[in-house]
Design goal:
Elements (H helix, E strand, L loop, with lengths): L10 E6 L2 H13 L5 E4 L7 H4 L7 H27 L16 H23 L23 E6 L7 H10 L4 E5 L2
Antiparallel strand pairs: 1-3, 1-4, 2-3
Helix pairs in contact: 3-4
Length: 181
Amino acid sequence: MRTMVSPPSWGLLAEFPSAAEVLRAAQEAYAAGYRRMDAYSPFPVHGLAEAVGMNYTRLPMLILAGGITGGLTGFFMQYFAMAVHYPLVIGGKPLNSWPQFIPVTFELTILFAAFCAVFGMLAFNGLPQPYHPVFNVEKFKLASRDAFFLCIESSDPKFDPRDTRRFLQSLRATEVSDVEP
């Protein structure tokens, strides 16, 4: 006789009545040692990203690297064309007349930085993400309208199904739901 074993939960999703409540709950969860969590709200809540532990992003450094790469690409592309590949001395100008290289160098700096910003933001945010396990919770549909949620993932080292559920209920969550994978 075979018994059906339910798959392990992906995490617990707690619903809160207001933005202030979910912010306070996220701060308390972080203070309690939970690190693998995320918060969902219908509008941006000031301080919520920091409360769930998203304090640092590598995106500015990626954009800087893209801008520097674009600037160097623009400059050396023109230098190669003017001084190496097709050297012509016209009017006594040197082959490396860098003032004429400025417009293209500037434009490629901006272009590369912009591409790094857009694609880096998509990559760091994990987008596009057409499916996420929290979509399996029926009440999560309200996250884009008028509900606030805090999800603690089961991959968190401190996660224990019973203790974490009790902890979320102690934060005055209106409902705590299991998130199925």
